[in-house]
Every structure is written in structure tokens, then in C-alpha cells.
Amino acid sequence: MENSMHHTAHERIAALFNEIYPISAGLSESIRQHSKVITVEKRAQLLHIDETCKSIYFILRGGVRTYYIDKEGNDITSWLLFEGELAISVYSFFSQRPSFEAIETLERCTLLALTYEKLSLLYRQYPEFNFIGRHLTEHYYIRSEAKANTLRMLSAKERYLDLLKSQPQLLTRVPLGYVASYLGINQSTLSRIRASI
Q1: If we measure between CA atoms, which residue out of 135, 132, 109 comes closest to residue 28?
Q2: Predicted structure pTM score
Q3: pLDDT per residue over 74-113, tens digit each?
């Protein structure tokens, strides 16, 4: 069962990478050798605040959130991530410094994990993998900028409607308190917006 799951996981991540840039048989086999498939329960902490992010996680099944604690002690959800996406603390992973955010599972998850050391090894051994890494980094930077612009430029209701259009599954898979926090509003404001639509 585990070998079958790892094979499926590897096929899915190879397909994802191939969409970005054709990967060689050698790189494909190295990813298979150096990654591992893990299953974790709901509300598992993949990364704690002030811990250094040692692994990048490809989500095969389930949902994950990243969050930080603001100056007032509030838990603020910064990312909501699902199947086919990467869960990572970008700053901590690439700098190998303590993280200002945590990563927590929202559901029971199956993840393909690749450590910083193994990723660095793949970058050194396979030049094409550097292209893939750059593309993924740019993708998440653009997403981060888009989210920041949404928070700055759209009203609370517009942010909710935008989320409804782009990620409707969030509302059935994520507690409303986390959704409100992700949108930069409180839960009572979100409830009012939902009631008005």
C-alpha cells in the first residue's frame, strides 16, 4: 500500500514538474529516492513558530494552513492550501532561519516531503531542476503579491466574492474563523457579508 502511494505521489509531482519544464529520467528517479510520503492527522503541526522549516510539502490529499500570531496575540491565517499545492514557509525554508509562521493541517493529509538538504542536492545535480525551482518561487511570490493587493484594494465583501469565485471549496473545508482571518476581517463581519448575499 505504502509503495503504491509513493508511486502515485511521485507520478503526480513528476507531472507537475513536467508541466513547468521537461524533467529527465535521472531527475525523476532522484526525486523518487530522496522524497518520502507521509500521512498526518488533522491539526498536526508541520512547522512551529520559531522553528526552522526543514521540509517542503507537496499536498497529495487534504488541506493545510499557514498562520502567524500578531502583536495583539491573534492567530492570523496567511495561506490556505490544498491538493496539488506546496506547503512551505518560504522565508524560513530558503534562508534556513527560524520561521515567523506555523504550518498546520486542516484535515488528515497525505504529503510528499522533500528536505532542504535533498532539494539542494537535486539543484546541484540537475540544472533543469533550478528552472523548476525558480518558476515555483516566482509563482508563490506573485500569489503573495496578489493577496497583499487584494487586502489593500478590495472591500471586505469584494474579497469574499473573489474568494468564492476562485476557491469555493474553502467554505466547505475550512472553519469560517480561519476564512475570515485569511480575508483580513473578523468572523462577525464575514457572517454579515454571507447573510447579505
Answers
A1: 132
A2: 0.86
A3: 999 999 999 988 999 989 998 999 999 999 999 999 999 9
